[in-house]
Each structure stands twice: as C-alpha cells, then as structure tokens.
C-alpha cells in the first residue's frame, strides 16, 4: 500500500526534443503523493556540463516560467516547465541541455527520471530542402517492391552526408526509421551530396552485420541491367523542378553474403529496356 513515505517527484520521461524555429515545449514534472498531502515546491536547473553541443539559456532558448521553482499546491499532480526556443538562422547542429530536479520543499525522493535531456533540433541544415520522406519507384525488381517509402535524414555534424533509410524495400527490407533503442542496429546507407547539389553518391559495399536473412552488402553495377561490372557507387541525379527527385540508372541490390540465403539479393532494381543506362529507381520527395 502506498504510504506518505513513498512520495516522490520525477519527470514523466527522460528525453524530449523541440525545433529551434521559435517553438514552445512543455515538460511536466510529476509529484506522486497521497491525496491531501501538503503543497510542495520543486527547484530545477539547466546543466550543460560535459555536453559536446550544449543548448544555452538566453542564446538557444528562454524559460517562460517566472522562475526555476515549480509549485504543486494540491500536494500531488504536476506542474510544467515551459521553454521557448530561439532561432539563430545558423547551422550549428542539434544542441542539448539537461534539465535536472535539484531540490524540493518536502525532501521527497526524486524518481529515476530526475534528469531530462532536451534536444533543440537545428532547422538550418544546408540540405534541409532534400531531407524528409520519399516514395521510391523501381522499374523492375525481384525479392522486393515496385513502390515503397524511403527516409533521408541528416547525419549529426555533417553538411554533405545523409542517412538513407528504407532503400531495401518494405517486403523483405530493413526498417525505414532509426531504432528506438541504442541496443538495436541502425539500418541505413550513407550518401554524399555533391558540392553543387546535383547528385548523390552511395558507396557500394556498405554492410549490415545481420538482417532477417543474414548479413548483407549493398551491391551496385555500372549499368542498368547488370551486364557490366560491379561499380564503386550508386550515383543519383538530383533535380528540383517542381519538387525534389533523385533518379538512379544503375542496377543495385542488397546482397546476402552468408548463411542459407548467401548469394540472394533483397530489393533488386534494374531496367530491361533496350536503352542503356535507363532509370532503375526514382525517389520523389513527399511535399
């Protein structure tokens, strides 16, 4: 049975994120106590010690609360930390600040969630115009889909390299989103955008240690139907007239390299027409 000595105070989660475009985020602090408990105040602080890219109060965000002390007059329930971000119009990468619960007026214990890491997401990435969700359409395939979703995301600290999720299709392919746990493998390909933003290069040989069917290696050919030799990279042409479109004209697949399925490919893409170097896969960004 819950007793007065069991009362505690904690955040409801340990992480949160907010865009830097003058956005507001509300972060609840929960007081778990018996009904009729006396009112309690809770003090918090912003801590940036040890953070590689800290979000600094007054530069990256402002506190909308009157002070760094919350008050729960009913003795149980919650109060809210309210923060508004500041858009600096510069690409600095995502920044983080740790919000820590440091004391309370009734000396309640703090729960396991006594620190919350707030990430301020930078909206000024130079490739922001091409990041986001895409629809992939392949001309011909085997062990895959003719149409499927793809996500292109920023790589922290990089301005020309992106992470590409989902190019292996949805039928047999890997997840199209980052993992929710640090213990899970992150199934993406790295792509490098040219200095003039006209093309993207995805190196062949990028490996996933394991997927449902065994380890895989991204494999690319010089031509659109696999009659030529293997290539060092898959090259996509980027156009922006009426939206972002990335066109690939080489055969590719995710080749299984070990186990019972060794030598089989997941999500082949090729073109069988008589024209050389015809499109094999077209990515169209969702607007």
Set out the fold topology:
Blueprint: E1 8-11, E2 15-19, E3 24-32, E4 40-47, E5 61-63, E6 69-72, E7 77-85, E8 95-104, E9 109-110, E10 115-121, E11 132-138, E12 147-154, E13 161-165, E14 189-193, E15 199-203, E16 207-208, E17 216-220, E18 233-239, E19 245-248, E20 252-256, E21 265-269, E22 281-285
Parallel strand pairs: 1-9, 2-10
Antiparallel strand pairs: 1-3, 3-7, 4-6, 4-8, 5-7, 8-10, 11-12, 11-22, 12-13, 13-14, 14-15, 15-18, 16-17, 17-20, 18-19, 19-22, 20-21
Question: How would you describe this protein?
Answer:
- With about 290 residues, the protein is mainly β.
- The chain folds into two domains: about 5-120, CalX-beta domain (Immunoglobulin-like, Sandwich), CATH 2.60.40.2030; about 130-285, no CATH class.
- It is about 0% helix and about 45% strand.
- The strands form four sheets. It has an eight-stranded antiparallel beta barrel with strand order 11-12-13-14-15-18-19-22.
- A hairpin with a 7-residue loop joins strand 16 and strand 17.
- This is Calx-beta domain-containing protein.
* Helix segment tally: 0
Estimated helix fraction: under 10%
Distance between the termini: 53 Å
Mean pLDDT: 92
Rg from Cα:
25 Å
| Classification by helices and strands | mainly beta
Give the SSE string. Answer: EEEEEEEEEEEEEEEEEEEEEE
Looking at the structure, what is the overall shape?
elongated
InterPro entries: CalX-like_sf
Protein name: Calx-beta domain-containing protein
